Amino acid sequence: MRTVGGPGGPRPGGDFGPGQAVGTVTAVVPDAGRTTGQRLAESEDGWPEATPLTDAQLDALTDVTAGDQPVSVDLPGLGSYRVLAADVAGGQVVVGLPGAEAEATVDDLVRLELLATLLGIAAAALVGTLVVRRQLAPLRDVARTAHRVAELPLATGEIDLDERVPERLTDERTEVGQVGSALNTLLDHVENSLAARHRSELQVRQFVADASHELRTPLATIAGYSELARRRPDDEVALRTALTKVDEESQRMTALVEDLLLLARLDAGRPLAQETVDLTSLLLEAVTDARVLAPEHHWRLELPEHAVEVRGDEQRLHQVITNLLTNARKHTPPGTTVTAAANAGGFSVHDDGPGFDAELTERAFERFTRGDRARHREGGVGLGLALVAAIVDALGGQVTLESRPGDTTVTVWLPED
User: Fold this and answer.
1) Coil vs helix vs strand at 337
2) Which residues contact 276 (CB under 8 A, 6 or more apart)?
3) Confidence (pLDDT) at 112
4) Burial annotation 89-105 (CB, 10 A radius, 16+ → b, else e)
5) pLDDT tens digits for 164-182?
6) Which residues, in sequence order, are bridge partners of residue 25?
7) Rounded CA gap, 270 and 263, in Å?
8) 117-120 long-range contacts, CB within 8 A, separation 24+
9) Virtual torsion, Cα 367, 371, 376, 380, nearest 10 deg
10) Which pLDDT belongs to residue 41?
11) What DSSP string runs through 355-368?
């Protein structure tokens, strides 16, 4: 901004004092008389000089009222000015500066503020991005664990699912820790489910293999004795023996197939009858039959004064009791005392025989589970206790086994009527 003054001083004829900016206007408005005014302009040789204002410009300045705050005035030919009027003796003096420079300054300030705001936003975005990336780094580690698990072949077979979120990322006091802990819990459940599925697959394969083996034995016997009958059609003794063995093995195979079909139906969730069953009558009947089949055993029956009634399928409950008594009869020596006792909500079968082998106790109710045949009086296919567990479970009950030498008890709990 060019101002009046300097080494050479103002041009002759100027009424402006030192330090006045080029473009400044002044006007004297007397109470009586003609208004005069001039503008400080820049001459061709670069020096400031005073130039008179036009009548239109003076009229615009004359309308300004004295006050403490500058006002905006549009001077014809000069544009917008910010002027201030002050009362003096005999009139008032009006001084003004062009508004273009002030507007330019404001525009510059706006631009600077806008630029500063944009730079601030950019800096904040950059810092925010860095902070967020740093804070989310643990979450990316959790995601990598999830991706590694997702890439594992989980369809079949034994699964080695040992991937886990690192312990440092499982602190549940933080959001990321909660995600990591939840993912580890989920992976534990998945691992347990896959292990259970694998065990089930192995059990199914073993079940099919055992069932095939058990069916092959009577079939082979039937085929052998049939061949014997064909070769000796005139030998009545051989024919009777063959027919007897074929009948025995057919009955054995029929019983096995019926047991397998019953297990398959129970596995499929086929419901059993739910009716009121007199448990005391079933126990009395089953123990009476057992005394006839095995008189060398001591059979005891403990019944309460009042009849015990439960909800269930009478035929299947009779099968459960019979299987337990048969199991005690087959796997204990003569002279063993077997006690069937009814109680509220179920019954128990106790014997003082040698008991189960320690390694068989936990899997006694699994299918085709058999102990050392050399210790047993009669053979079996290992489905008796498996049927007991399946039937009781289908009826909504529970069966438990406690066994040690001289003290074996199977307890069955059933829904009360």
Assistant:
1) strand
2) 309, 310, 311, 417
3) 92
4) eeebebbbbbbeeeeee
5) 777 776 667 777 777 777 7
6) 39, 96
7) 10
8) none
9) 20
10) 83
11) ---HHHHTTTTSTT
The encoded tokens of residue 228 equal: 């014997």
Q: What is the DSSP letter of 416?
A: B
Residues 198-245: tens digit of each pLDDT: 777 777 777 777 777 777 777 888 888 888 888 887 788 888 888 888
Residue with token string 């095939």: 212
Say which amino acid occupies 232.
R
Q: What is the pTM of this model?
A: 0.51
Question: Tokens 């089930």 label which residue?
Answer: 200
Which secondary structure element, helix H or strand E, spans residue 309, and what is its range? Answer: strand 309-312
Q: Torsion angle of alpha carbons 329, 334, 337, 338, nearest 10°?
A: 10
Cβ(229)–Cβ(242) below 8 Å: yes
Please give the Cα distance from 231 to 173 (Å, whole number): 84
Neighbours of 1 (CB within 10 A): 8
Residues whose CB is less than 8 angstroms from the CB of residue 120 and which lie 6 or more positions away in sequence, other chains included: none
307 — alpha (psi -120 to 50), left (phi > 0) or beta?
Answer: beta
Nearest to 39 by CA among 87, 89, 4: 4
* Low-confidence residues in the chain, pLDDT < 70: 1-19, 46, 135-136, 150-161, 169-171, 367-382, 416-417
Q: Choose among 356, 278, 287, 350: nearest CA to 317.
A: 278
Question: Are 395 and 272 a contacting pair, CB within 8 Å?
Answer: yes
Contact 25, 41 (CB under 8 A): no
Q: What is the pLDDT, as a whole number, of residue 160?
A: 67
SS (H, E, C) 200-214: HHHHHHHHHHHHHHH
pLDDT of the residue at 12 = 41
pLDDT, position 116:
92
CB contact at 8 A, 81 and 97: yes
pLDDT for res 373: 46
Sign of the alpha-carbon torsion through 360, 365, 370, 375: positive
Q: Distance (Å, rounded) from C-alpha 322 to C-alpha 297? A: 15
d(C-alpha 75, C-alpha 57), whole Å: 5
